[in-house]
Fold this protein.
Amino acid sequence: METPLQIRERWSYLRDLLIEQLGRFESGALKIHASDVNVSKAAIDKLKKSIAEFDTLISRSEARQRAEDVD
């Protein structure tokens, strides 16, 4: 099982990679072709929102773990 630090490191890498790819898509440097998958601006915005929500989830989990470690 991965430790919280390993999860954070892994998420950080994946997050940065995804944000970079989304930026390239938005700028037009990257084209995404899919038969029936929505790759619209709304889909990109939804992905960005999900990233932010997961960042918050990890931060809260880490804060809770630090508080438990103090007790």
